[in-house]
Amino acid sequence: FLISYLLTKDISFSIFISSALYPTGTAITVKLIENYKRTPYTETDIVLGILIIEDLICIILVSLIAPTIAGEKIELKKITIGIITIVLLMTLFFVFRKPVEKIFVKLPTIVNEEVLAFLVLGLVLAPSEILRKFNISEILLAFFLGCIVPEKSEIYTSMQRNLYGLKEFSAGLFFFLFTFGTDLHLNLNNITIIIILSVVSIISKIISIYIGTFLTTKSKATSSRTALSMIQRGEFSLVIGGINPVVKPIISIIVIITSFIGVVLFAYAPQITNYITRSSKKQIKRKENLYRK
């Protein structure tokens, strides 16, 4: 936020930029964990835990800044409305959670697998249109729906089995349509901002994740692998950036840059960590030998 504000002197722009660059791309990271078979690694649980926390924070951020009209400055009144909306929705969620869970448990007896996809789409799309009328982000609704469906229920298992292809297709379609609909015409000043923010976002992410993981695990190797695995930005960055048309093209390019670098660093995180560990051990031995002499 501070660096963005120093470059632009625009508080609204800086809030959108810093909010968009905060989260790691969940969809990209989970896909990388699956493709590179990192599930048995120690840091995988840490990575997934951080992703959940970041997603939750981003849902709150989006809900707070979504009421702002695209291109307008963020106002205290609109932020207050966003906070009240979140509190009301969370209250309704906790009040109706148990009764709704019971309904989902009974659903397999009245819904077959052929119409399950249409049921889920209806549950997401219909309330989303209602929320849009009140300038409430549909991301908040999607989060609540994900929490309501009991993991041990038959419908949850059926959804995982039958909607996997739809999920993969939707993720790919989202990234394609967002980039396709973005005007990437940039001036020299924007290019400078993109380069500086890309470098700062990568370095700050590595440092913050490393420190946080090390304080938890006390392991330099685990901390290093975790930090190198969470550089890529993704869907939440694009969603937050898409709210503001000025921020959208800048965020789109930064997401592409960080995703490319993040995928490479994720793939070579174990090798880089091993190299750093060996180098540090050699330096320690050299210092010990010099001390003895």
Task: Give an account of the 3D structure.
Helix content is 79%, strand content 0%. The model has no long low-confidence stretch (mean pLDDT 78). The chain has one domain. It is mainly alpha-helical and 293 residues long. Helix 6 packs across helix 7 (138-148), helix 10 packs antiparallel against helix 11 and helix 11 (220-228) runs antiparallel to helix 13 (248-292). The chain starts with a helix and ends with a helix. The chain has helices spanning 2-8, 11-21, 26-35, 42-65, 76-106, 116-133, 138-148, 154-162, 164-180, 188-217, 220-228, 235-243, 248-292. The protein has 13 helices and no strands.
List the helices and strands and how they pair.
Elements: H1 2-8, H2 11-21, H3 26-35, H4 42-65, H5 76-106, H6 116-133, H7 138-148, H8 154-162, H9 164-180, H10 188-217, H11 220-228, H12 235-243, H13 248-292
Helix pairs in contact: 1-2, 2-12, 4-5, 4-11, 4-12, 6-7, 10-11, 10-13, 11-13, 12-13
Brief overview:
The chain has 293 residues and is an all-alpha fold. It has helices at residues 2-8, 11-21, 26-35, 42-65, 76-106, 116-133, 138-148, 154-162, 164-180, 188-217, 220-228, 235-243, 248-292.
